[in-house]
Design brief:
Length: 125
C-alpha cells in the first residue's frame, strides 16, 4: 500500500523514526526524474521487501488511516515514545480500545500529511 506525500523526505523521516520500533526502514528508492528529483520510497516493516510506499505528489486531501502491526504492547509503547521524541502529534496515547475488541492495544498518531496512523497489537484469547 502507499500514497502520495506533500514532501516524501519529511514523510520518510517521520515513518522511519516513529515506527523504527516495528523495524520500519527504507527498503528501496526509485528515481522519478533527473538527479535531485523526488523519489518514490518503499519502506519495509522488517521483511526483505518494501511493503509501504511513499510517492511524490499532492497529498491526499481526505484523511487516510493506516495501521501497522506491532509484535507486542511494548513495541506499541516504544512507537509512542519515538513519536514524542520526533515531535509527532499523538491522537490517542497507548491503551486498550475495547470498542474494537478486548485485546486491541494501540497508539494513534498524525503523520506529516495529516493522516491517522497507528501501531497496534492484538491479543486474543
Amino acid at each position: 500500500m502507499g500514497f502520495p506525500c506533500g514532501d516524501v523526505e519529511t514523510s520518510v523521516a517521520f515513518y522511519t523514526a516513529v515506527f523504527a520500533p516495528l523495524g520500519m526502514t527504507v527498503g528501496m528508492r526509485i528515481p522519478t526524474g533527473p538527479p535531485g528529483a523526488p523519489e518514490v520510497v518503499g519502506l519495509s516493516s522488517g521483511g526483505p521487501h518494501a511493503d509501504f510506499w511513499l510517492a511524490p505528489g499532492e497529498a491526499v486531501a481526505q484523511e487516510l488511516h493506516v495501521a501497522f502491526a506491532a509484535p507486542d504492547r511494548g513495541a506499541v509503547d516504544a512507537v509512542h515514545e519515538a513519536a514524542l521524541a520526533h515531535g509527532a502529534e499523538v491522537l490517542h496515547a497507548p491503551r486498550i480500545f475495547p470498542e474494537y475488541h478486548a485485546g486491541y492495544y494501540a497508539v494513534f498518531l498524525r503523520d506529516p500529511d495529516g493522516h491517522n496512523v497507528e501501531a497496534v497489537h492484538h491479543t486474543f484469547g
